[in-house]
Amino acid sequence: MALSRCVTPILLCLLLVLTLGTAGSAQSVRPPEAPAEAGSQTLEDILARQNGEGAARSARDLSTAMPAPDGLPLGTRGAASDSDLWQALRFGTADVSVSAGGPTARVIMQDGGMWWLQARRTIADYGGWLLLGLIVFLALIRIIFGRIKIHGGRSGQTILRFTDLERFGHWLLASSFLLLAFTGLFSIFGRNGLIPFLGKDAYSTLAIGSKWIHNNVSWAFMAGLVIIFIFWVGHNLPARGDLKWLLRGGGLLTGNHVPAKKFNAGQKLVFWAVILLGASVSVSGLSLIFPFEMPLFAKTFASLNWTGLPQLMGLDTLPEQMSAQEEMQYAQLWHAIVGFLMMAIIIAHIYIGSVGMEGAFEAMGDGDVDLNWARDHHALWVEEVMARKADPPAPPANDPAAPDPAPQA
Amino acid sequence: MKIILLATVASFGIGLLAWALLGQSGFSSADVLASENVRLD
């Protein structure tokens, strides 16, 4: 119940959460819904439980101010028992006033936290297996197919692929993402994955440090995201040849490369995945850094309901009213889901940019790539660069049949 | 390679700056939910 109740609606809000992420600070708080398994004692509830059906509590038997039945002795709180009070607190029907914290603090017990806790564990399980499975898959690819070589070998001549500013933006994003990824994993796998090995004291120190890094380095991630978007969005717009590139898998395994400009279709997919998922994880992260200040999901779900998309997919209407605590739970779950997706994409990106392909790391390492590597993967871009230089290009050392781009160095 | 190091340092630098600007401002779930400020009537 927990997984289907939360994950499916969350998956639906991928696009809208990006645009609606800056929802206003005002928030409406309503009591969390009573769960179906509560143990109310009306005849209908008892019969429903006997039939294996959940019996939802309703306000009728949760009141803390029930009138005293005739002829019964009253306790210190009239006819209300401690059980009544705690049930009312649990299901949010108690009349609570607080001296600080606003309406959010009126929720003393958050019964909806149980499904969130279970969903969090489920997401962690699936996410962990996703990452491990991907690493094993890439290792198998590497073993079976080997490293993607430069066609014709290295030319000995290089061409400037990325400027210093471009590489700074990339590495600002990359270094901050790695810090966020590891600290995020430390957080989500702490109780079940790390405490058994490290012990609670050592993990406490790690968790505190992880939280500090995760919260504060996130700003560097957002800055890097903006920088690379500005630098590269123009090069990542769809273009002719992208579909052909995708259909051929880029020719990465066959060696039959498809000519591409500065970024091929595969890189464009990575770019837009990083931009969209990065924006989404940033917005949900902001919602978590500033608790209860940026409720996102009620408005997003309302917009999705308006589109009719959930109904088209056979789902119930998504909840449009939720407590501030539920908003936070959805934000955390969504943050984790997007985080795992990004980690998977970036693991593949790191693989192809390092051990998976000869000559690829140099593009982001010192900025210059071998001319033959550039011709293999970005032949149209090489032609553009050479045309701009307006110099008669010289042939690479060991590829005399190729066109003649002028080497930079 | 210097740029990789520079960008990594910048990540922490921005983090420190954010901490200095925001981290001391009381934004924390623990603060918001501080149970000692809650009183039942």
From TrEMBL, chain A:
A Pfam family of this chain: Ni_hydr_CYTB
Subcellular location, record wording: Cell membrane
UniProt keyword annotation of Transport present: yes
InterPro entries documented for this protein: Cyt_b561_bac/Ni-Hgenase, Di-haem_cyt_TM, FDH_cytochrome_b556_subunit, Formate_DH_gsu
Cofactor(s) listed: heme
Domain of life assignment: Bacteria
GO cellular component terms attached to this protein's record: formate dehydrogenase complex; plasma membrane
GO molecular function terms listed in the Swiss-Prot or TrEMBL record: electron transfer activity; formate dehydrogenase (NAD+) activity; formate dehydrogenase (quinone) activity; metal ion binding
Annotated region (Disordered), positions in chain: 389-409
Mode of membrane association: Multi-pass membrane protein
Biased composition (Pro residues): 392-409
Swiss-Prot/TrEMBL keywords: Cell membrane, Electron transport, Heme, Iron, Membrane, Metal-binding, Signal, Transmembrane, Transmembrane helix, Transport
Signal peptide (UniProt feature, chain positions): 1-28
Annotated Cytochrome b561 bacterial/Ni-hydrogenase domain residues: 161-359
Family: Belongs to the formate dehydrogenase gamma subunit family.
Name this polypeptide is given: Formate dehydrogenase subunit gamma
Lineage: Bacteria, Pseudomonadati, Pseudomonadota, Alphaproteobacteria, Rhodobacterales
